[in-house]
Design goal:
With 161 residues, the protein is mainly beta. The protein has a single domain, classed as PK beta-barrel domain-like (M1 Pyruvate Kinase, Domain 3), CATH 2.40.33.20. Helix content is 13%, strand content 35%. It is built from three helices and eleven strands. A seven-stranded mixed β-barrel has the order 1-6-5-9-8-7-11. A three-stranded antiparallel beta sheet has the order 4-3-10, with no helix packed on it. The relative contact order is 0.26. The model has no long low-confidence stretch (mean pLDDT 91).
Amino acid sequence: MVGKLAGIAIRPDRYAAMVDRPAVRIEVDGLAGDHAGKWPDRIVSVIAAEDWAAACADLDPPADPLTELPWQTRRANLLLEGVRLPRAPGAMIRIGAVDLEVTMQTHPCKRMEEARAGLLKALAKDWRGGVLCRVKTPGAINIGDSAEVISSPPEIVRRLP
């Protein structure tokens, strides 16, 4: 299934607000201008628009992901649309000419609960918080670029309490 890159956001500093970008260069150490942190397996964070919408719908009361809780609230770097993110480390995602290797599931932090009560729990199930990746093939990406999962090992299913 081929989808598209629907959003790009960087954070200039650790706790800074997310800043939208129409295009960005991704290097092995992360997105240009982004504070990627010190963990090489957590360089790029990716979320699916459909997962974000599902998490917003699970809130009480539900939130509109376009007006009330924009995807940048999740603090992910990339928003993919029309792509089911893989649920296993080792999977490969291609966005334009950039290849990303999934290293782990994103585990939402307390900042999600600060943004909206119940958001942390809504994101925690079914990998809705997205995935963290390392960069395998660097390059430039633009909103609207094609996005697809090019390989994926068997899914990991976790039962959360």
